[in-house]
Design a protein that fits this description.
alpha+beta, 3-stranded antiparallel β-sheet, 8 strands, about 20% strand, disordered N terminus
Amino acid sequence: MKWLGGGAAMLLLKGKAILSLLKIGKIAGPLISMMISIWAYALIYPWGFAVGIVLLLLVHELGHVIAAKQKGLPVSAPLFIPFVGALIAMKRQPLDAESEAYIAFGGPILGSIGAVAVFAAAYYTNSPLLYSLAYIGLLLNLLNLLPIHPLDGGRIAVAVTRWLWLVGLVGGLAVILYLRSILFFIIWALFAYDLYKKYIMQRKKGQGNTLSSVSKGFLIPVEHLKDVGYMIPGPEHRRDLPFTTYSDLHRQQYVKVNWDTLDYNGTAVLTQQAIISKVRITRLEQVTLENGLHLRMHLEILYTPFDNDKYYDVPASIRWKYGAAYFLLAGFLAGMMYLVHLVGNVNL
């Protein structure tokens, strides 16, 4: 046990350096969220199961990451949420329904491969723990194929047929009530409300009335203005700012704001295509840094989301291919669950 004590002492002495390296390497957030999830699951389940389920979730999310990279779309590292699962954030939205479905397929495909690998290890070692993990891994990937947005099945449906959303609305609720899962019921309820807003509320009000907003922050150096006697705006200052907006070849939209009196230009990045209505200052804070006085400017960008009518235009051959892959994958997962249950009961 001496090496264990020495290792613990080393971690204590070098803890700050290790944390710094984690932050620099952009791995701190995902790693910490993994550790928290393992700890949370271990409060209910054995440690081995807790570690295994988080690793299976990691494999699933890596499938999305790989698929997004293949489509040239940047994504965040996986973030784990105890008893919810894991997720990645899209830094730029797909340009069409086919790309969205392709990225959605990545998770359950790689996740299924991971679960089957665990099943093979369980059969080889005759391990009850691994049989349980294999079954749960297959179940989670199958549930993710429910045609309910934002589950993977709901995103795949956009490239097959959006009528699958209706199947998810009715059949998904039956599955969720059978499972008695509060989490999946909340996801279903949000999905149902989103469909109501998109296909009923917007048609009643008209699409042009759906105004949204996003907040952005900028740091403006003003020390040179103070030196020449310019009156620096206070925290109660409010005004609309002139702006220009443009998109690059990848349809990434930018909003360039201008404050003439402060001789400042800043650029904000939008996560979706939008029609900008107004850019206004909501709050100002004066902060003093090493290089002098700065204004921290908080902006609100008011916009109307731009719905690309051609987003859902998917060739019939792709619809058939993705539809066949969707149902084959769902059938494969259901069959594997039965096999794991059968073999596990025989061998244990």
